[in-house]
Amino acid sequence: MSRSPLAPSRTSRWAIGILVGLVFAVPFAATLLFTLTAADGSLTLDRWATLFDPARAAAYRPVWAGLINSLILAVVTVAIVLVVLAPTMVLVALRYPRLRRVFEFFALLPITIPAIVLVVGLAPIYLTIGRSLGTGAWTLAFAYGVVVLPFAYRSIQASIDAVDLQTLTEAARTLGAGWPTVLLRVIAPNLRQGLLAASLITVAVVLGEFTIASLLNRQVLQTGLVLINKQDAWASAIFTLLALTFAFALLLIIGRAGRVGAGRKTP
Questions:
Q1: How confident is the model at residue 258 (pLDDT cuts 50, 70, 90)?
Q2: Is the pLDDT of residue 188 over 80?
């Protein structure tokens, strides 16, 4: 297969990759050096060792509790994107193409609204949610679903535009497939890249969001890090490094899991 004339050369790809890697690696390395440097300038692992000190377990509990809450939030928010947003976009593309511009406008609208403004509008809603569903951190998934909407929409829409959904759907229906089968076994595999990208972005946004969780008084990873930072700046930096490493590994796992079978050839 010939390479597209618009595609960057191998040298350009390597240069871009190295540049992007440095952008992420330099702050990471600087923070790591900060946690390893003692007051006299020597390198030490004492601050890392305090993470395993039983006497400090209670002080670090907000971070671990926040991490668990953030992981639960990530799962629920991804489910909202895949179960609610994606099928709705497919429905609009197949049945109501004239509504695409209207739907796109409302899907992209949250990116223009600051988080503090969203909280002002969501606060009365969360009073009702608190009375009916409780005040658990998982309820933030409804707000996070709004926050990630523009990013998830663009990712999924790009895949929809690249596939002839109408032809695929009509062919599957002609062969007797029901709508659940069409959606799960015909359309979803063809939108794999868009759904994967939407899931990755959703996880990244959920793990890094602070404003909404703080103002709605919910404990997540970022609020836990801020709380620890007020007590021990070095511990906060260490937990930040661990959180970044964990998030990066989680995204790699999701990316690898989403690509399983993508490269297999159909016999």
A1: low
A2: yes
d(C-alpha 72, C-alpha 57), whole Å: 22
Mean predicted confidence (pLDDT) in 148-168 = 90
Q: What's residue 84's pLDDT?
A: 93
Confidence of residue 85 (pLDDT cuts 50, 70, 90): very high
List Cα–Cα distances, 95 to 60, 171, 190, 195, in angstroms: 52, 16, 18, 20
